[in-house]
Design goal:
The protein is of the alpha/beta class. The protein has a single domain (2-232), classed as 3-Layer(aba) Sandwich (Rossmann fold), CATH 3.40.50.300. It has helices spanning 46-53, 76-86, 102-112, 119-128, 144-156, 174-191, 202-205, 227-232, and strands at residues 2-14, 19-31, 35-39, 61-66, 69-70, 87-91, 162-166, 194-199, 210-215, 218-224. The strands form 2 sheets. A 6-stranded mixed beta sheet has the order 6-7-8-3-9-10, with helices on both faces. It has a 4-stranded antiparallel beta sheet with strand order 2-1-4-5, covered by helices on one side. The protein is globular and about 50 Å long. The relative contact order is 0.19.
Length: 244
């Protein structure tokens, strides 16, 4: 089932002297339960694409549908509520609130939404991520890997359909990076979520079901299980040679 559909996305920044095309006609799809990596050089448009999918920014042209709901047709407040209930975010710098304990950080999205805490689900997630011993600590008392695990737990608490991760291993060493990505994949499989990861690290991308490459605001390559089907439909070019 198609969870994410983005069609003809353009994002232009125009001044008196120049025009920057951060996205220049991007069409992208993701299926339920799929783990997708978006890769590209710095400034290629990959974070802009992720922000569009997550409703953090709006396109100059084009549309985005999440679970069949058009983000463009929503008012700003409506989009914020929809995002909080359907999309989880994991960032490179963790974005944990320093004055809150790990427990308080994890349940913060639920409290902001006035929702109750599913204690059984909380216990399952924190056990899977191996952070139950850190729940009473402040973020600065944790290692980088532990902070990112807490950030993943926070992203999962609302049971979102989609988990978006922007360079989630950029501040971690290589061993911890692989552990964190492995945990994200395990969580996605366990809780039946779609995961879209932006990364510049090839070793991280290799763990995905599908790799989408972007350069200069345009999709330029596609690898993995769904590549041939989408290439035939004319969405993006196919790079052969990998089928995980």
């Amino acid at each position: 089932m198609e969870i994410v559909k983005a069609v003809g996305l353009k994002k232009y920044y125009i001044t008196d002297t120049y025009e920057v095309r951060a996205l220049d006609g991007v069409t992208f799809f993701a299926e339920a339960g799929e783990f997708v990596a978006i890769v590209g050089t710095s400034g290629s448009g990959k974070t802009t694409l992720l922000n569009m999918i997550g409703g953090l920014d709006v396109p100059t042209e084009g549309g985005i549908w999440i679970r069949g709901n058009s983000l463009r047709d929503m008012e700003a407040e409506e989009r914020t509520v929809f995002r909080r209930r359907n999309i989880g975010f994991v960032f490179q710098q963790y974005n944990l609130v320093p004055v809150l304990s790990v427990y308080e950080n994890i349940v913060l999205p639920l409290r902001l939404d006035g929702a109750g805490i599913d204690d059984a689900f909380f216990d399952e997630v924190t056990a899977l991520l191996s952070i139950r011993e850190q729940l009473d600590r402040l973020p600065q008392m944790l290692s980088g890997g532990q902070q990112q695990r807490a950030a993943i737990a926070r992203a999962l608490m609302t049971k979102p359909a989609i988990l978006l991760a922007d360079e989630p291993t950029g501040s971690l060493d290589s061993v911890t990076s692989m552990e964190v990505v492995g945990l994200m994949r395990s969580c996605a499989e366990r809780f039946h979520q779609t995961v879209i990861v932006v990364t510049h690290q090839e070793e991280v991308a290799q763990m995905a079901d599908r790799v989408v490459r972007i350069e200069d605001g345009r999709l330029c390559g596609h690898e993995g299980k769904m590549a041939e089907e989408e290439s035939i439909s004319g969405n993006i070019p196919l790079i052969r040679g990998r089928d995980r």
